[in-house]
Structure formats: C-alpha cells, structure tokens
Design brief:
The structure is a single chain. The chain has one domain (5-156): 3-Layer(aba) Sandwich (Aminopeptidase). The protein has four helices and seven strands. It has helices spanning 34-49, 55-67, 118-131, 148-156; strands at 5-6, 12-17, 23-28, 73-79, 82-94, 99-109, 136-141. α1 crosses α2. The chain is globular, with a radius of gyration of 16 Å.
C-alpha cells in the first residue's frame, strides 16, 4: 500500500508493506527517538570503524539537530511502533544548480532487518521527498572505503560513486 499525504514542510509520508505483512512506516524522527538514534550511532561506529563514541557527545550532537532544523533532519523507519532504522539528511547549497543537495548521513538499520530491503525502501521514501521538493536538486552520501556491503546496496538502488571523491580534514580531539 502506498499512501501519500502532505506533512510538515509540505513533505510526504509513505507506508509500504513487506512480504511478511508487517507494515513499515517512514517518518521524520521525533525528539523521543533521540536515544534510539544515539544508540544506532554508537553501534554503527563500533561495527564499521571499531571505535567507541562518547555517549554525552553523541547525545548532544543528536539533540542539536532536533533543536536546530538548519543542521538537518532525521528520518526513521518503524515496524510495529519500533524504530528499526534511521538516517540524517543535511544540506549543501549548490550554486551550480541554484538549489539544495541533500546529504544522507548516519545510516543505520538494526541487524535483524538488514538484507530485507529496509534501507532501499527508506531511500525510496527520501527520494520521493526530494522529487516533491522544488528546492532539492539531488541526493548524495559518502561511505567508508572499506564498507563494500553498503557500497553494493547504494549501487543497486541507482546511486553511483563515479563522479566525486570525498576528502576530509578533522580537528584532533
């Protein structure tokens, strides 16, 4: 079932049914989802990079997004009122396109739901939001060079990593 309804900021909500007949809901995260998002970020850092993130720092970082919409917006996936996945959209201004490019960050899907198409469906939801927003010109994301499983998923959903290479510099802590 596909249901499109206007929501805050003129965005839409989509509901899809999995073959198991569980209904999957995609929605903007609420402040009460913050601790789940913090836990997801800590698990992701441990799983993908083998690092432990400071709980207070991550909690403050997640809370900052809820307090300042200019920083971004979290979206979550729910099954039976349980948040099972999340991602963060941040914004890049593109003068070349005279519009905004959304960056997908902080993607996390609970282990038991991986490989079942949850991220592909969440991405389809995000892509539909972008398609319906006249200010958005496209979607980008970055992925760790060693995370080949994620790279394969991103390729399967129609994204390509051929155009840009991301470089970074981070302050020492």
């Amino acid at each position: 079932m596909l249901r499109l309804e206007p929501k805050d900021w003129g965005w839409i909500d989509m509901t899809l049914a999995r073959p198991t007949q569980e209904v999957i809901h995609f929605r903007p995260a609420k402040e009460e989802d913050a601790q789940t998002i913090v836990r997801f970020q800590q698990q992701m850092a441990h799983e993908t990079e083998g690092i432990s993130l400071d709980q207070a720092t991550v909690s403050a970082g997640v809370q900052a997004v809820f307090e300042d919409p200019q920083k971004g917006i979290y979206y979550v996936t729910e099954v039976e009122q349980r948040v099972i996945a999340s991602l963060l959209i941040t914004y890049e201004w593109s003068e070349w396109r005279n519009g905004t490019v959304w960056w997908i960050q902080s993607v996390y899907v609970e282990k038991e739901f991986r490989g079942s198409g949850i991220f592909s469906q969440l991405y389809a939801y995000i892509q539909s939001l972008a398609e319906n927003d006249t200010e958005v010109r496209g979607i980008r994301l970055y992925v760790d060079n060693t995370n080949t499983a994620a790279q394969q998923v991103y390729s399967r959903i129609g994204m390509n990593g051929d155009h840009y290479k991301v470089y970074e510099w981070m302050k020492s802590e």
